Amino acid sequence: MNNKKLIYAFACGLSILFAGIYYAVFVNLGQDESKSTASEVTLYMNQVGLYKQQDSIDKMKAQLETYGLVGYQRDMGDVTAVVCGVSTSKKETVKAQESLTKNNVTFLLKSVKTKDASVIQKIHDKDYAGALEMMKESK
Question: Are 44 and 91 members of one domain?
């Protein structure tokens, strides 16, 4: 009888131990990709326009501010793209689309991948303007 109690106690102890190990493993697997030290990072954004003149860019960025969004500019060669909802999370970028749709602003969902360590550091620091500028220079 004493052996049965000992076996049950040992089995329960091992179950608790393995449950803790599984929990720790799966919590680490489910971490946000923006927090990882990945060698490649994807940056999602909503492109709201392409402009050649700086005053048009400034007007669109000001308009985005009135909707509660931060506008960034991305040099595309002979034109400049105005983007908003910039994030490493596609869900966050899609969430910004609600405000754009509500205010009848047309947009395109864009994504850019980078392996450049200095750009990745700027992205982790949430310096999206700096990251977009550096991506322009690295192309």
Answer: yes
